[in-house]
Specification:
Elements: H1 9-26, E1 39-43, E2 46-50, E3 53-62, E4 65-69, E5 74-79, E6 86-87, E7 92-96, H2 99-134, H3 140-173, E8 175-177, E9 182-184, E10 194-195, E11 201-206, E12 211-218, H4 219-231, E13 244-248, E14 256-264, E15 274-281, E16 293-299, E17 304-309, E18 315-317, E19 320-326, E20 332-343, E21 346-351, E22 359-362, E23 374-378
Parallel strand pairs: 1-23
Antiparallel strand pairs: 1-22, 2-17, 3-12, 3-16, 4-11, 5-7, 5-10, 6-9, 7-8, 9-11, 12-15, 13-14, 13-16, 14-15, 17-21, 18-19, 19-20, 20-21
Length: 391
């Protein structure tokens, strides 16, 4: 039987019309319905008395460090320390083969004995000659010869004694001892190698407690710190007025070490416009190591009432920094702020907030100015919790 396709067209048209009418009456489906306001976390800023810090990056250096070398040459006979150990001043570190120096010491000692015998004999001869000359039984020329022989023997004795002291020193120098207390490096020469005097590097020692921290400041800040040091009755180059500072290292969660500024270089570098400043820290537990990087905070303002927020509450709008504020009705608005340094674990807000606002601190990606949100209000602690990163 032949098909009749055109007979079904009215039915199709009526079906499409009914579908359009149903959509128009019912409206969009549940997926297009208006969503609930997003939930965010908001809080009042932390407002407290603070002292603004200037932060610098620097490096720790040992107060004292020494490269250990031998004063005498010879073959290395023994090593008396463990690589990386803490040593005390005077501890025995290395021994050079002592036999040649012992022989030289004994030879020098024998020459002293000979010189002593000759001096005693010449002194006795001079005394006899003086007695005979006084009675007229000895000529003046002979007396002068006896006096010359005595002076020559005395000079020979002094020379032999000096040689003995030198030989004794060289024998002592075969035992190489720690010139200072600190942590020793590994041995750089193995037993049996020839050690050249004053040239072969055997190991190094660095002091550990206290430890210094060096950093560079620009000319403007240098002048401010120098003025503060003068007010404290000192100079930045000498003692730095005892200004209290704190340093943080990357591998210690929220750990800071307290110290004091104690030195600054006596000229500003013409190439960089900076001056190097030093702070000294106690290091009894040995956590701080020479060469380690750190961030130092130096007080840079007088105490004042500051407004602070967590870093995650601060957003960016091109070149501006903004925070989102929620009013009593839940409407979001943006405020431009000028952040400062970190303090007590928060970011100081230098301009833009009074401290009375309710600021969104979590959920910034779900808001924009003008929308309504459901704000869960929390209270920020006076001190931010440890974040595991340098402040």
């Amino acid at each position: 039987m032949a098909s009749r396709p055109f007979e079904f067209q009215p039915v199709l048209a009526r079906t499409l019309l009914q579908a359009i009418l149903v959509v128009g009456v019912v409206g969009p489906g549940p997926a297009l319905a208006q969503q609930e306001p997003p939930t965010v976390t908001a809080a009042k800023p932390v407002v407290r008395d603070i002292v603004e810090d200037d932060e610098f990056v620097g490096r720790f250096e040992a107060v004292d460090q020494v490269a250990v070398r031998s004063r005498v040459g010879g073959y290395l006979q023994a090593v008396h320390f463990t690589d990386g150990a803490l040593v005390k001043q005077g501890d025995l570190l290395f021994t050079i083969d002592q036999r040649p120096f012992q022989a030289a010491f004994e030879a020098a000692k024998s020459r002293v004995d000979v010189a002593t015998s000759l001096l005693d004999f010449s002194q006795l001869q001079l005394k006899r000659a003086e007695e005979l000359a006084s009675s007229g039984n000895l000529s003046t020329a002979t007396l002068d010869d006896r006096r010359r022989e005595y002076l020559a023997a005395e000079a020979g004795y002094q020379g032999a004694t000096a040689d003995l002291r030198t030989a004794n020193l060289n024998l002592e120098f075969t035992e190489i001892r720690a010139p200072l207390a600190g942590r020793i490096d590994r041995r750089l020469v193995s037993i049996g190698n020839l050690v050249q005097p004053d040239s072969t590097l055997l190991t190094t020692i660095v002091s550990t407690d206290p430890i210094d921290f060096y950093f560079d400041v620009d000319e403007r800040l240098y002048l401010a710190y120098a003025e503060d040091a003068r007010k404290r009755g000192g100079a930045l180059q000498e003692g730095a007025g005892g200004l209290d500072v704190a340093v943080r290292i990357a591998d210690r969660n929220n750990a800071s070490f307290a110290g004091k500024l104690d030195f600054a270089e006596n000229r500003i570098d013409a190439a960089t416009g900076t001056v190097r400043v030093r702070a000294r820290f106690a290091n009894s537990d040995g956590v701080l190591q020479p060469g380690m990087f750190g961030r130092i905070n130096v007080p840079g303002s007088l105490p004042y009432r500051g407004v602070m927020l967590p870093d995650e509450a601060i957003g960016a709008d091109q070149s501006r920094r903004i925070v989102y504020v929620v009013d009593a009705e839940g409407t979001v608005s943006a405020k431009t702020v000028r952040p400062g340094p970190r303090n007590h674990g928060y970011r100081v807000i230098r301009e833009g907030l009074t401290g009375d606002e309710t600021v969104i601190i979590n959920g910034l990606m779900r808001v924009r100015p003008g929308v309504k949100v459901k704000a869960e209000i929390v209270t920020l602690p006076d001190e931010a919790a440890a974040t595991g990163e340098a402040q």
